[in-house]
Amino acid sequence: MARWVAGMATLALAVTACGGTGDDADSPTDGSAKGAPIIIGMDEDSTGPGASYSTIAGKTIRLAVQDINDKGGVLGRPLRLVIENDESDPTKVPAVLQKLHSQGAKALFLQSGSAAVMQAKSTLTQLGLPAIAPTGVTATLVEPPDNELIYMLANTTTDWAEVYCGAFKAANINTLGILTDDTTTIAALNKALLGGMSCVKITATEKGAANASDLSAQVARLKDANPDAVLVTSVGGAFEVLAQNTLAAQLKDKLRFSLASIGNQPSSWKLANPGALEGLIFMGSINQDNPRTKALTELLKKANGPDYEVTAYDAEGWDAVQLLKLAIEKAGGPDDPKKLNEAIQSISGYQASFGQGNFTLSFSATKHLGADGPCGLSLIEFGADNRPKGPWATFQPPCSS
């Protein structure tokens, strides 16, 4: 997911790529901050299966860094990003993180697929670098072993399962069909998510290649299984559009659910057939009743144009940078990784720019998942114009900590 404001560099950010390409023109400038740069590493999948969402968050991370630098930096020092690309390939992660460390990174953003981030955990322990996975949603990312230095913001698949189950109960859905892609990221997510949904009977599971050009056979088999509803689990992009086009044509009377992917990828909406997304319900996090969401929306539209669609990936990327800034300030600087890690763990009640209005993020030595309660989530329904029209009237998660 990406499109971004770039800063031309005076003191440019070194953008390199492992298996991808980098461009210094996308680097935030140091702005008005004049001290020695604080180097932050970002492992961003910009060319692999996770690129459809990683680049959106990555673009906003760049903007957040630029915004901080324009306002004087952190403790008078500018933030500077160094960027590598692991293509969501777990085998490339150790080398990517080692390279970021060698470039002087004091902390990391892990903006990649879940399987790749999982692989990062042991390497973080070896390097001693704290890291935030802005858009991670798999709870195992922050669970032992090797979880001492890794943090997440968003509600996990455990909360997703609870919310979906509430939705299924409210809509009298007892049986469910699954249409999924074949990526390692979704395989890991399915294991966590579907394993937590004992509230419904899964009567059929169909899989297609992420680069599939035809899913009609899979959807025909789902139709034969006759579930009450269908859930699509994918990284989004072309697969999700194809899935929804096919489902709309063959199973137009079935209630459809999806992950956050499709709702957070505005570039995909116009690729769907007219009306193909109508009635589709996805797991969202953007709620304009949240004043921080509204403020971020104004900033992003100013930076990217009035038609820019703000996503959860934008908000999570933005908040990840603000949280790291806060931690560096609490630690008195970035150079002692132990103090920096303890500073992250001391953050409590941070008011997020996603979720419902009273949604907050907190961390501790034993709580590396920031979300305070399920109200970081909303079920959002698409309208006839293939655009989200607002919260699904049938069910919304309660906002209680």
From TrEMBL:
Biological-process GO terms, alphabetical? amino acid transport
Keyword Disulfide bond set for record: no
Signal sequence, start to end: 1-19
Which Pfam families did the record assign? Peripla_BP_6
Keyword terms: Amino-acid transport, Signal, Transport
- What Gene3D superfamilies would the database entry show? 3.40.50.2300
The record, for SUPFAM superfamilies, names:
Periplasmic binding protein-like I
Which parts pass through the membrane?
none
The Leucine-binding protein domain sits at 37-360
Q: Does the keyword Cytoplasm apply?
A: no
| Similarity field | Belongs to the leucine-binding protein family.
What protein is this chain from? Ethanolamine utilization protein EutJ
Organism annotation: Sphaerimonospora thailandensis
Question: Which lineage is the organism of this entry classified under, starting from the top rank?
Answer: Bacteria, Bacillati, Actinomycetota, Actinomycetes, Streptosporangiales
